[in-house]
Write a structure and sequence with these properties.
Layout lengths: L1 H61 L8 E6 L2 E2 L3 E4 L2 E3 L1 H13 L2 E6 L5 H6 L5 E2 L13 E3 L4 E10 L14 E5 L3 H10 L4 E5 L2 H9 L5 E5 H9 L4 E13 L2 E3 L3 H16 L2 H9 L10
Parallel strand pairs: 1-5, 1-6, 9-10, 9-11
Antiparallel strand pairs: 2-3, 3-4, 6-13, 7-13, 8-11, 8-12
Helix pairs in contact: 2-7
This protein binds arginine.
Length: about 300
């Protein structure tokens, strides 16, 4: 009898141990399952984050506000050396290099479309281009129809004459015919300040104005200073005799309200100035130091 009771007790004890062990296992298992569930949930969250990131990146590209994704169409009057001109069938110049650099950084191809200066902004407004970059001075009047990027260049106006003309400055303009490019800030300035003492003669393009000067059809050309210097330096007969401080700044124009493109251009422009790429492009086309505002 004693012996039997002992067995029963031993059996109960063994059973109790077994139950306890099983219960522990179960707890472990539950823990494992918990861990797995947690991991899966974490993975899901990661995946979701990845998807969101991808979406953001895609949106950034889509969201450049371009008429055709991946292609930035730039309207310009490609006859304004050293800013934009065509040589050997290729677009060249400071504006061209700058725009291509911006395009590279935005991951889009830049295509230049050559057009007359006087229609560029209407064409932009009509959706023919994504931007206009054409040594285009930022003015209040123009800003009523298009949006401008932050300034990317500072320029004044200047007067070029035949070296043997005896004209030495703007004080000699009485009775002169002064050639300008139509629809430019130079044309406006000349009309406001030189007329009626002088006669302002408008030409559709800058080359025509200089050809007229060289063939004595006009007595002077009034034009953006960097272009005036380029022409005078490249000629034996022309001379730059006056600089007029108009404190102009060039900007890249986009369609009014195209904030996505404007923001992208401004951010990229800031980067290009910040990392001295601006300076590298500038020194390709101009002598002297980069103005402080673009350093
Ligand atoms: N800066 C001047 C203006 O905005 C002249 C620009 C002429 N540009 C050109 N590519 N022809 O009126």
């Amino acid at each position: 009898m004693q012996l039997r009771r002992w067995w029963v007790l031993a059996a109960i004890a063994a059973l109790a141990l077994l139950v306890a062990a099983c219960a522990e296992d179960e707890v472990d298992e539950v823990d494992e399952v918990d861990d797995e569930v947690e991991e899966e949930v974490e993975d899901d969250v990661d995946d979701e984050e990845d998807v969101e990131e991808e979406a953001d990146e895609e949106e950034a590209v889509d969201d450049l506000g371009l008429a055709e994704e991946g292609l930035l169409v730039a309207g310009s009057d490609l006859d304004f050396e050293p800013f934009e001109f065509i040589e050997d069938g290729e677009e060249k110049g400071f504006d061209v290099d700058l725009m291509n650099e911006i395009g590279d950084r935005l991951g889009v191809e830049v295509e230049f479309v050559n057009s007359g200066f006087d229609t560029l902004l209407t064409q932009l407004d009509g959706g023919e281009f994504d931007v206009v970059i054409s040594a285009l001075t930022i003015t209040e009047e123009r800003a009523e129809t298009v949006d401008f990027s932050n300034p990317y260049f500072a320029a004044n106006q200047a007067m070029v004459v035949q070296a043997d003309s005896g004209i030495t400055g703007v004080e000699d303009i009485e009775g002169l015919d002064i050639g300008v490019q139509a629809a430019t800030t130079g044309a406006d300035y000349a009309k406001e300040n030189f007329e009626p003492d002088a006669t302002v003669v408008e030409f559709p393009g800058t080359p025509e104005a200089f050809t007229a000067l060289e063939s004595d059809q006009v007595d002077a050309v009034f034009i953006d200073l960097p272009v005036a210097s380029e022409q005078a330096e490249g000629s034996d007969t022309l001379e730059l005799v006056a600089e007029v401080d108009t404190a102009e700044e060039y900007g890249i124009a986009v369609q009014m309200g195209n904030a996505a493109l404007l923001d992208a251009i401004n951010a990229t422009l800031a980067e290009i100035i910040e990392d001295s790429t601006y300076e590298a492009i500038y020194s390709e086309w101009f002598e002297g130091d980069v103005p402080e505002q673009f350093q």
